[in-house]
Amino acid sequence: MNASQTPPAQTSTGTRPTAATGPAPELATGPASGPVPEPGPRVVLITGASRGLGLELARALAAEGRQLVLTARNAAELAAVEAELAAVTKVVALAGSVVDDDHRERLAEAAAALGGAELLINNASTLTGYDLAGAALPRLADFPLTGLLETFEVNVLGPLALTQLVLPQLREHAGAVVNLSSDAAVEAYAGWGGYGASKAALDHASAVLAAEEPQLRVWAVDPGDMRTRMHQEAFPGEDISDRPLPHTVVPAFLALLRERPASGRYRAADLLAGPTADLLAGPTAESATSTTDEEHR
Ligand SMILES: NC(=O)c1ccc[n+]([C@@H]2O[C@H](COP(=O)([O-])OP(=O)(O)OC[C@H]3O[C@@H](n4cnc5c(N)ncnc54)[C@H](OP(=O)(O)O)[C@@H]3O)[C@@H](O)[C@H]2O)c1
For the region Disordered, what residue ranges are annotated (predicted)? Predict the structure, then answer.
């Protein structure tokens, strides 16, 4: 979110800006059937695809004819997604956690069996590493260390470990990695220290990976506030109906795939608002890598 554009709101976890609301942008997806579009990734691996943003990304990419490898822990919810999207495209859905070594291996193998992942979307995430059960986000002084450890395992170690496994496939296809970030990675909100620190770590790892793998695109993307289960858990008992639904930011991700701007950190709001020329100019100066667009091609 762009804090300068929106008034701050008092929350149970301190002053935290809310997302700008307004008319939802059109979802830029193609028809469910028809030719596979060119260019773009053919095989996409998405974590946290059973609900929220991950599900909406899976729906949009399926509609574009991409083949999908999807994961989340809840097997029943994931199976429902698989059943929905199998009518549209080839889908392999494997239930499990991104912190499980064997599960990550199975995900990478499934992508390889489809011909190799051309896009990895590290979307699965946790706020605290434990069930908040309606409680407020803990301050760092009180953060249970087991929860902090799980937060970093789910939000940083898991994505990096999965990236390691999939990198050979991504290199083969000059592919891309999308790591889901948050404004909490760059702003200091009381109660958001564990989650924010983990997202900041993922941002930095994304930037280093981009420098080390110049043939790839590595994008850290802040989607902005979205009306999802995670967001509701962060604001227990509060009305979050003013937050936009996750499908409204999907066109920002589709723009990244279509335009392939330089690796770096992007905000969905900027991608949705900016003309293509601005997008191709790359991310904000402090977050951009030194790699130019031309060098990637
Ligand atoms: N919502 C927001 O306002 C907001 C703002 C900024 C950034 N983000 C980021 O956007 C991304 C999507 O968030 P969301 O709001 O869509 O969340 P969400 O609705 O709670 O969905 C999270 C997804 O991740 C899965 N997941 C959680 N832990 C997992 C694990 N250990 N292994 C595998 N899958 C796991 C969940 O399924 P299971 O529980 O069944 O595993 C679910 O499919 C996250 O990276 C989040 O940090 C969200």
Answer: 1-42, 277-297
Amino acid found at 247: H
pTM of the model: 0.86
Write the residue with the smallest CA distance to atom 43 of ligand 1. 48
Q: How many angstroms separate the alpha carbon of residue 7 from the centre of ligand 1?
A: 26
* Ligand 1, pocket-test mutation among 70, 78, 162, 228, most atoms within 8 A of CB: 228
232: burial class by Cβ within 10 Å (0-12, 13-18, 19+)? middle
Inter-residue contact 268 to 19 (CB < 8 Å): no
Q: How far is the CA of 153 from the centre of ligand 1 (A)?
A: 14
Q: Ligand 1 center to residue 126 CA distance, Å? A: 6
**What would the pLDDT profile of 163-195 be if each residue is shown by its tens digit?**
999 999 999 999 999 999 999 999 999 999 999
> Whose CA is closest to atom 39 on ligand 1?
73
- In this prediction, residue 274 carries a pLDDT of 74
CATH topology of domain 42-296: Rossmann fold (3.40.50)
Domain boundaries, the chain: 42-296
Mapping DSSP onto H, E and C, the string for 201-241 reads HHHHHHHHHHHHCCCCEEEEEECCCCCCHHHHHHCCCCCCC
Give the pocket of ligand 1 (CB within 6 Å): 47-54, 71-74, 77, 97-99, 123-126, 154, 180, 182, 223, 225-226, 228-231, 246
Closest CA to 103 of 77, 131, 70, 136: 70
Q: What is the pLDDT of residues 26-42, one digit of tens each?
A: 223 333 344 444 467 79
